[in-house]
């Protein structure tokens, strides 16, 4: 029990000192572990894997010991007057308890399982369609490019099946042990299962219901998109669209059918009007990966945000090296020392990757903004916030207005007439709206596995049940329980929570709307200033509003951070609906003309 007031103050002073020391030491341990992780991710080999596993073990041991030490000195549950102090203790306690959950040998086994799954995924090679004995195709860039560019149904089918065989099938046997280990850690840490453990970061008891609610609000729009695209695809792939109304997953321009932007040419509403894919322009103008990052940096600094430090430019890996295996999946890195921040991306010069560049730069901007917070608060307000920063800026960058401004779109191209706007919005919806059911189902799938609803014998059947139900897509061949098609998506073997991307896709439009108002670029009453054509470039006011939220890190519950950035305290689908309103209206009429009934039999 805590006694008198002055005892309390003494206790808080002592607690602060201990936390300062913890903060200093854990930053060092984190730096070492991040460095070892980085060295492995940019140079996959057995030596580097060993070092990586050793360092991450050291990190866990440190957390365990620290927590033992700290918790022996304080009764931590809300013992302090200072809410920030309580929040810090609460976060350290979760880290500490989960670090202590497994004995060292079993922890090693768990780390090894995770590392093996990611390695299988990152180094998988598939065989070519034209020559089945040539088996040197990587996901990035080879298979991705086939999925994106080929319009040959058989070739697409082959690429899809190859990838799912060479990644998912190989990963399957590791997944059940991974699930068991994850649950054990979560339960020792007082969560019901690993799904609940992930969801803790959203700090809400109703998060699952809130997400379902958001999805229900957006589903009718998704179904309109689905119906329209299905009708258009039926023109290209004559016998592929059948009675059930489901779209074959290999025909949508992306391995996971999570973004359909690459089939834009097959579905463009007004083909004679301008398209906003500026890939050709970028190539003609001699864009390089480095130049794409410089362009992005310039956009951030035009808002008064923090420029990338020299270490970033020196140490980042911006192109795929030829002499070694790397984890190509793009990522941004915080080395916990307030100085080193890097991006690893196998960048290709395309409009799509220009958006990815902004996405990753958004992570680093967040790291820079909260770098002076104590280490435990150097996180997104919730995981979705972290994913939303770069995407929010990219909503401005990819407007025709901005592309003209930076010389990627010819000044004379007319862009604000109705038909060009519909083309543009459809292109955006092929990314943002189409992604929503996918962004939701990946974790719905894993929540239901973690909590025991779905057994190992149903891993693949359940995956396809959700994909049919939510996305309205079906596999290109019969699937069985030898397959593990969820494992063919990076975040599943890599143990990365995925709800963050769904949340990001919703809240980035709330951020965009708020920053656009701040920049004087959006007015709901003014038809000449629609939300989808807003560009916040050079608005210091918008930048300041964004920075104020980012700098808070996770030191306050996310609704408070959102309030700073948007004036709202809830996730809300109204901004995304507002942005796409003209397209949604157009789709309803167009589908009626095409005699398409939205929906499918799942
Ligand atoms: C990759 O790692 C190996 C073994 O640790 C090392 O010898 C080699 O120099 C590294 N390659 C690069 C390019 O860093």
Q: What is the global morphology?
A: globular
- Strand content bin: under 5%
Please list the strands of the largest sheet in the order they lie side by side: 1-4
Indicate the mean pLDDT.
96
Uncertain ranges: none
- Rg, alpha carbons: 24 Å
Largest sheet properties? 2 strands, parallel
Find the count of extended strands (DSSP E, 2+ residues).
Answer: 4
Number of helices: 21
Structural class: mainly alpha
End-to-end Cα distance, whole Å, is 58 Å
Helix content: 55-70%
Q: H/E series, N to C?
A: HHHHHHHHEHHHHEEHHHHHEHHHH
Heteromolecules bound: 2-acetamido-2-deoxy-beta-D-glucopyranose
Family: Belongs to the peptidase M2 family.
Binding site for Zn(2+) 2: 359, 363, 387
Disulfide bonds: 127-135, 328-346, 516-534
Keywords: Carboxypeptidase, Disulfide bond, Glycoprotein, Hydrolase, Metal-binding, Metalloprotease, Protease, Signal, Zinc
Offer a concise description of the structure.
This protein has 602 residues and is mostly helical. The chain has 21 helices and four strands. β2 and β3 (341-344) form a beta hairpin.
Describe what this molecule looks like in 3D:
The protein is mainly α and 602 residues long. It has a domain at 11-100. Helix content is 60%, strand content 2%. It has 21 helices and four strands. It has helices at residues 5-41, 46-73, 83-99, 104-123, 139-149, 153-188, 194-199, 207-236, 264-267, 279-284, 289-302, 310-315, 351-369, 383-397, 400-405, 418-450, 459-471, 499-518, 540-550, 558-566, 574-593; strands at residues 247-248, 331-334, 341-344, 473-474. The strands form two sheets. The protein has a two-stranded parallel sheet with strand order 1-4. Strand 2 (331-334) and strand 3 form a beta hairpin. The longest helix is centred in the first third of the chain and has 37 residues, at 5-41. The mean pLDDT is 96. The structure holds 2-acetamido-2-deoxy-beta-D-glucopyranose. 2-acetamido-2-deoxy-beta-D-glucopyranose binds next to helix 2.
